[in-house]
Task: inverse folding
């Protein structure tokens, strides 16, 4: 091999090595960016995941009545103070007392005279799940919060109420957190609303 050929060979080898090094550097960077965006996506998914707590944690956070209804599928007595309050409330949202998810709004509330707060449609269907319930020996449709899986009440169909859906979401008032529309805009943090319970 002549010396000039050796020089060309060395230069070529250096160029190839430099190219490989540069390419792998950018590949690493792209990989890091992908990992970062995956991490962000995971964080977002975690932020909308279901609320799961132990029985002890729920007991500490909820009132005795709310715990009985939400976690033990209990029912408040009809025509209680929650029902009176419900009838007096104006425009606003009804949030789950367990997790704060929006369940209903005043736009779908109606007076069924049954003794419990009634709505003809959930505010945000994804926050409300329904299940078949045979606890009383006949089929009823149980309504549960889709986020914290808390029991809310039952839904009855075809009762002849003059509502757009002919459905009555019969919901326990004690587990609804009412947030009037006008104060919602002023509220700076969800924690402040919680203390109003
Ligand atoms: Zn909930």
Result:
């Amino acid at each position: 091999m002549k010396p000039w050929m050796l020089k060309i060979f060395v230069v070529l080898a250096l160029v190839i090595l430099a190219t490989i090094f540069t390419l792998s550097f950018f590949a690493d960077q792209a990989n890091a960016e992908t990992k970062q965006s995956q991490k962000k996506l995971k964080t977002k998914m975690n932020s909308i995941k279901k609320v799961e707590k132990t029985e002890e944690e729920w007991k500490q956070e909820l009132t005795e009545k709310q715990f009985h209804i939400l976690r033990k599928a209990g029912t408040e007595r009809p025509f209680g103070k929650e029902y009176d309050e419900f009838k007096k409330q104006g425009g606003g949202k009804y949030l789950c007392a367990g997790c704060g998810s929006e369940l209903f709004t005043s736009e779908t509330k109606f007076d069924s005279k049954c003794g419990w707060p009634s709505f003809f449609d959930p505010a945000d269907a994804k926050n409300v799940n329904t299940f078949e319930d045979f606890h009383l020996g006949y089929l009823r449709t149980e309504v549960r919060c889709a986020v914290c899986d808390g029991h809310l009440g039952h839904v009855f169909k075809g009762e002849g109420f003059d509502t757009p859906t002919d459905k009555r979401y019969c919901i326990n008032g004690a587990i609804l957190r009412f947030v009037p529309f006008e104060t919602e805009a002023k509220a700076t943090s969800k924690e402040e609303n919680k203390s109003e319970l």
Observations:
- Residues 55-194 form a domain with the Metal Binding Protein, Guanine Nucleotide Exchange Factor; Chain A fold (CATH 2.170.150.20).
- The longest strand covers residues 151-157.
- The chain is about 40% helix and 20% strand.
